[in-house]
């Protein structure tokens, strides 16, 4: 018996009857021999962790564009916080932690530079639209590994695709990540907004703080415990009505005070201009795309607009600004 098979036996003995067992996966698009050490979902987690798209998250905006300070979140630290929260919930509910972590690690792989500002632009200019969760699936299925993809299991891809509020994950692990994403960004965005002196803790409405708590630690504790207590030995992941409404109210508060605040988002118009200019440049100058992207159009018969979105959405903030400067900012003339 292999180490993997023993791990699968332990899952069957210990995990909840509602958990997703690694041995019961619906599999991969391309069959491949199983690992002798790692169950399927752990293997997926490792593939995501080691891929290039994951590493680029450290240079992509979460909320604050080019913040002056070392402690503001970026897309990578957001992903790690989602993963930590989701694993805590999954462990308490005896769900599959490896599946939960793989979904969490991969949920934002397709996010654009400059956060949701970049996503809005690509959704507006691309004829087929652009949604970052769908782009994350393109990353793991078609873009990583020079077009071979990561060949992840169906359950991981389902969780990544459906992590937004409008999605309906097929596994409880996917539903855990869906809520953990909200819990993470609400709390870390409050922390970053207070660091940026956009508001003080006392300015958060008292009725929200009475329910959720008056510190990051208290709010995380409240939200996580609420999910665990309401989902224990249940076939669904649930929140109490009181906590769910308080979270919605807190998000609305953040929307008006941070997500649309000129102090936090004032530079987004410039960022949107960069993304839009790059999109139209590559549509008019396909020869400026890397060869592997050109081949997607000429050999694999992908639409140029979709391939341009693939390339731009994979850029970091700094790389997008560098390419914009290369194409649109005049250089000093040098006769040498």
Give a structural overview.
With 336 residues, the chain is mostly helical. It folds into 2 domains: 3-265, Orthogonal Bundle (Hypothetical protein af1432), CATH 1.10.3210.10; 268-328, no CATH class. The protein has 17 helices and no strands. The longest helix has 24 residues, at 172-195. It starts with a helix and ends in an 8-residue tail after the last helix. The model has no long low-confidence stretch (mean pLDDT 94).
Descriptive tags:
mainly alpha, 2 domains, Hypothetical protein af1432, 336 residues
SSE blueprint and pairings:
Layout: H1 3-14, H2 40-49, H3 52-56, H4 75-92, H5 97-106, H6 115-125, H7 132-143, H8 154-161, H9 172-195, H10 206-212, H11 216-231, H12 241-259, H13 262-265, H14 268-284, H15 291-298, H16 304-313, H17 317-328
Helix pairs in contact: 2-5, 4-5, 4-9, 4-11, 5-8, 5-9, 6-14, 8-9, 9-11, 9-12, 14-16, 14-17, 15-16
Short précis:
With 336 residues, the chain is an all-alpha fold. It has helices at residues 3-14, 40-49, 52-56, 75-92, 97-106, 115-125, 132-143, 154-161, 172-195, 206-212, 216-231, 241-259, 262-265, 268-284, 291-298, 304-313, 317-328.
Topology, number of strands:
0
Oligomeric status: single chain
Mean pLDDT: 94
User: How much of the sequence is in beta strands?
Assistant: under 5%
Largest sheet at a glance? none
- Rg, alpha carbons: 21 Å
Gross CATH architecture of the largest domain: Orthogonal Bundle
| Tally of discrete structural domains | 2
**Classification by helices and strands:** mainly alpha
Number of helical stretches of at least 4 residues? 17
CATH homologous superfamily descriptor of the largest domain: Hypothetical protein af1432
